Amino acid sequence: MTIIQPQLNDTFSKKVPKGDDHERLVCDTCDFIHYENPKLIVGCVATYQDKILLCKRAIQPQKGLWTLPAGFMELGENPEEGAAREAWEEAQAKVTIKDLLAVYTVKRISQVHLFYRAELSEPVFSAGIESMDVQLFRWTEIPWKFLAFPSVTWALKDYEKVMGSKHFAPFSNPEPYKDI
Amino acid sequence: MTIIQPQLNDTFSKKVPKGDDHERLVCDTCDFIHYENPKLIVGCVATYQDKILLCKRAIQPQKGLWTLPAGFMELGENPEEGAAREAWEEAQAKVTIKDLLAVYTVKRISQVHLFYRAELSEPVFSAGIESMDVQLFRWTEIPWKFLAFPSVTWALKDYEKVMGSKHFAPFSNPEPYKDI
Ligand SMILES: [Zn+2]
Ligand SMILES: [Zn+2]
């Protein structure tokens, strides 16, 4: 498939391209169509023994709140590699990605979140550039009221449901949040 | 999270933004960063009784070859809704999306493909605008040599492995194709 790239000084207008049924940003010069696509977030519930790795965010949004290591998937990697990269960047932790825990969609911001189960072979970690603190939490110590994003809460609750399960179908958004 | 949108006449240059480690297309005026993200393809292995729905492509790439209904996920939908929409657009078939069959990555073109199992309640379908033919195939009749894309072949073979299984972990790329 040939991809035409717009030149840097091209200008764009909103039009419905031929054969399409959605309005897109189309280049006025070369008809390059700037599709806006949902974005993939990749992350993990990473554990060491019975403890879960959480990062305290050093940046906005939700600075000061706790999150699972997660971020935008990059070009040239697969989701598992992206999830491991984020654990390294945010928590300086080397994790082994295991199975797919969940596929969540946040329609409002057009994001699809893939969360994996993962393991640390050693309790070695520290705050990466986007974190002000990284800790391992026992299940009973998780700071539920100070979690940064809904999908972090969902992933932790879904993680609990399959503790001890080897094969399971990944979760999607919990029932009251199907269309958020 | 505030998203700054570039104005239509802004120009962009390649720079490494502060705190980042990749080169991005950055707006010269307002510092809007144009991230290039992997794209999500959503599709389904849709069945009626013991037959599988395939579409013969009417457009390039791979015109004339057979594919599962699949396409780019749009904004404002979740992957299941996108997969059902593609079955409608390409095969004029109303399908019920079931479980997640596979998450494949094609790194070379930065695509992540989510394939679901799906069912037609009636054998009602016809060629949509991107198809020249749509048919239900028995397993033994699948035109293996005339399938359009590797992920179509993978999805069909993975589908066979879990015929009759209710709960399973979704597949990823088959072993020799992890990094294609
Ligand atoms: Zn152009
Ligand atoms: Zn700008």
Automatic annotation (TrEMBL), chains A, B:
Transmembrane regions: none
Enzyme Commission number: 3.6.-.-
Positions of the Nudix hydrolase domain: 37-160
Record's keyword annotation contains Hydrolase: yes
EC top class named in words: hydrolase
Coiled-coil blocks: none
Keywords attached to this entry: Hydrolase
MF terms in GO: hydrolase activity
InterPro entries in alphabetical order: NUDIX_hydrolase-like_dom_sf, NUDIX_hydrolase_dom, Nudix_N
Protein name: NUDIX hydrolase
Species assigned in the record: Temperatibacter marinus
